[in-house]
Amino acid sequence: MWRLLSPTALLLLVSAGTRAADLSKAMVVLEPEWNRVLVSDSVILTCQGAYPPGDNSAQWWHNESVIPHRAPSYSIEAARSEDSGEYKCQTGLSEASDPVQLEVHTGWLLLQAPRWVFQEGDTVQLRCHSWKNRAVQKVQYFQDGRGKMFFHRNSDFYIPKATSKHSGSYFCRGLIGSKNESSEAVNITVQGPPVPSTSTFLPHWYQIAFFLVTALLFVVDTGLHVAVQRDLQSSVKKWKDGKVTWSQGP
């Protein structure tokens, strides 16, 4: 089979295989960065990834259903409960992204954070968000039912260099007008430092090794084929020129 492939075709095959091995995943980015929002909040989802020249279209999914929207950004002007769920995207030169969860809640206050799982040493940012950005006074943040921080005016709560002791259940409370409102509690986890691993790179090298071995086999097979053909042509030429000698056995 390899004799039917030219060296150029083989190079294209190897190049295509290498590009497939290097194909990266797209990524859904939220703006603002919170994955928990209140009804009527606006959210912009952007598909980050490699785009073909002159083509910045993207494919979008919501809860595994295709969204009839091809722009690189997808806007939700006023979030509704039915906008909750998983969002994925894909560009022309990327694999489909991992799903991003968007939660749309109903209430006066909502505790927000960039993420809910942190590594030791990270800075944890918590935000006590109000419906339609109503003014909130005397804001207090709680961990496992104990008050951790108090602000006369609504402000974000930062925990620098978080450790495992900062894991727990958090919520916020504040005054909206004359009413004392509280958010739902959310769990925050602070993990130990990650252990480096090379296992994620193995599939990439397996694919490259496969195409390199394929190329080597092609070169060896082609060389043998050419050598055999050259010897056969030489023998035929000698026979035609009468240079082949016969010897009679005893």
Automatic annotation (TrEMBL):
Keywords: Cell membrane, Disulfide bond, Glycoprotein, IgG-binding protein, Membrane, Signal, Transmembrane, Transmembrane helix. It is found in: Cell membrane. InterPro entries: Ig-like_dom (IPR007110), Ig-like_dom_sf (IPR036179), Ig-like_fold (IPR013783), Ig_Fc_receptor (IPR050488), Ig_sub (IPR003599). The keyword Transmembrane helix applies. Residues 1-20 form the signal peptide. GO terms for biological process: antibody-dependent cellular cytotoxicity. Residues 7-90, 99-189 form the Ig-like domain. This is Low affinity immunoglobulin gamma Fc region receptor III-A. The chain crosses the membrane at residues 205-228. GO terms for molecular function: IgG binding; IgG receptor activity. Forms a heterooligomeric complex with ITAM-containing signaling subunits FCER1G. Interacts (via transmembrane domain) with signaling subunits; this interaction is a prerequisite for receptor complex expression on the cell surface and intracellular signal transduction. Binds the Fc region of antigen-complexed IgG. It holds the Pfam family Ig_2. It comes from Lynx pardinus. The keyword Membrane applies. One of its GO terms (cellular component) is external side of plasma membrane.
